[in-house]
Amino acid sequence: MDIITLWTLLIAAPFVGSFLGVVVTRLPAGRSVVWGRSACDRCGHTLSPASLVPILSYLWSKGHCRYCAAPIGAFHPAIELAAVLPPLCMAFLMPLDALTLCAGAGLGWVLLALAWIDLRHMILPDALTLPLIIAGILMGWARDGHFPIDRLAAAAVAYAGLVLVETLYRRIRGRDGIGRGDAKLLAAGGAWAGPAAVPHMLLIAALAGLLAMAALRLAGRRVDGTTPMPFGPCLALGIWAAWLFTLSDL
User: Fold this and answer.
1) Do residues 144 and 155 touch, judged by C-beta distance below 8 A?
2) Contacts of residue 168, Cβ cutoff 8 Å, sequence gap at least 6
3) What pLDDT does 250 receive?
């Protein structure tokens, strides 16, 4: 059953990625991610079911709208392919039970959406971060067989810690640094992976941020202390890595 669940998640991943594309596009704009059919951004023509098949529809149309021939950006096939990564990563840690596989895939997909939204809009919506905290506590409850006080405490301490850093940075530098959405995302990481994993999440996130800044400088971009940088993708990477590490101990 574990292998069947894994293969089901791998097959479903591009379709989930297609929905994540809708979430990334609509949620920051305040639009419903459930109601309203997908349409071409250029001509507004409602897309047929054949035009919504992940990856294959993009290849079949050669990256252009079937109705107005406008070019389609690589965003949609990219996020559909990226959605395969969470279940694929867990495949290397098999055997895992079905609950852990499904929960881990869900965590990875939400982190993917949050990272992409932060890259595009510099926000981490409460509509994704807050349910992720609750889901992490419930997952810990299901796995441990008792209410996970340690995970609840980890979420609270992680949130309070980043809020303290945010407050101190604003007072010292006179401008905003880390956002409140980052604190909520780290709280979700604490809820999912427990208190011992929180420092590792921050370490991985900090290293990822430094590498991103170095890459931008090598690419010729001017980066300094005032350059706005989304920290959400770095935190998402740290949380995902910490979660995988907890699975390796199962």
Assistant:
1) no
2) none
3) 55
Rounded CA separation 62/91 (Å): 32
Q: Give the whole-angstrom CA distance, residue 109 versus residue 107.
A: 6
**Mean pLDDT across the chain, nearest whole number?**
88
Can you give the pLDDT at residue 116? 96
Helix, strand, or coil here: 46? Answer: strand
Neighbouring residues of 221: CB distance < 8 A, sequence distance ≥ 6? none
Which residues 6+ apart lie within 8 Å of 106 measured at CB?
A: 135
pTM: 0.91
Q: Which residues, at least 6 apart from 206, have a Cβ–Cβ distance to it below 8 Å?
A: 234
Tokens coding 86: 């969470």
Per residue in 34-67, pLDDT tens? 777 777 667 767 777 767 778 888 888 777 777 7
Query: Count of CB atoms within 10 A of residue 225's CB?
Result: 7
